[in-house]
User: What shape does this take?
Amino acid sequence: MPRIFVTRSIPDNGLKLMRDALGAGSVDVFPHDRVISRDELFTGAKGADALLPTLADPVDTAIMDTAGPQLKIIANYAVGYNNIDVKAATERRIPVTNTPGVLTETTADLTWAILMDTARRISEGERYVRGGKWQGWAPQLLLGADVHGKTLGIFGMGRIGQAVARRAVGFGMRVVYTSRGRLEPFLERQLNARLVDKATLLAESDFISIHCPLLPETRHAFGAVEFKAMKKSACLINTSRGPVVDEAALAAALKAGDIFAAGLDVFEEEPKIHPDLLTCENAVLVPHLGSASLETRAKMAEIAASNIVARLQGKTPPNCVNPEVL
Ligand code: DGY
Assistant: This one.
């Protein structure tokens, strides 16, 4: 019977799918409800035929080599896979899979929740009420920014970027976007969207929402220079990957009033957050909840498990990000 090592408990449907297909004893789940340590990951990976890590678990050459030559698949429990050394996996002819599609709309919903919160100071207002500070309605209390009719900048117009832009139509917004490729003209019309360069995106947007993958060229794509180039009234939203934003520079920009506010679901060194950000009232800070709905996390479990079952049954895993190994 193969051994599948799952680094953290995932929804039951995924575990059941693997147990039903590959044997009741095939699934070995890390038993603690916390991020697995490096040493524990080495121990768990040793001799595994399949690894099912989460985005919090770096899977590099050392882990792959410790697992051993029988390792046949790494099925990441996320759509992003920057935690996996895909090049090393490809060299070892190990397919790496992700969970695309199912979390697009859920992440777009969360992006909008954070955007609205950031613009209208909802979390700040909540803290104010619970802190016993509210003395009653006041003409100038916690004034935020209008969202409707404004310009939304999308940095990275992939699946999630487009889902965020679709929601902007209902708010009567203009969309400007940067992307490797241009959208079809009918989509641009539907989304009221215009492809621009980064400088234009920074200069024209009232809200900038980041939806690019984390790559060497997108690391710190938003830093001091970008914040200075944005409108002082602008809000920055990041639900992609933390290191795309330079957190120290963002905290400085928020304190200096270079931009109005920021809403972050992702951080440079999760779960650590730059201490200066924690003291910014105009930062909405969320613990990486992009895909965290009951429905979506169950679908992600099903996809990761199906990829493992396919591979261990000698079939093609449907969501391989390095198909050249197959
Ligand atoms: C992903 O799958 O990459 C998301 O960030 C999870 O929330």
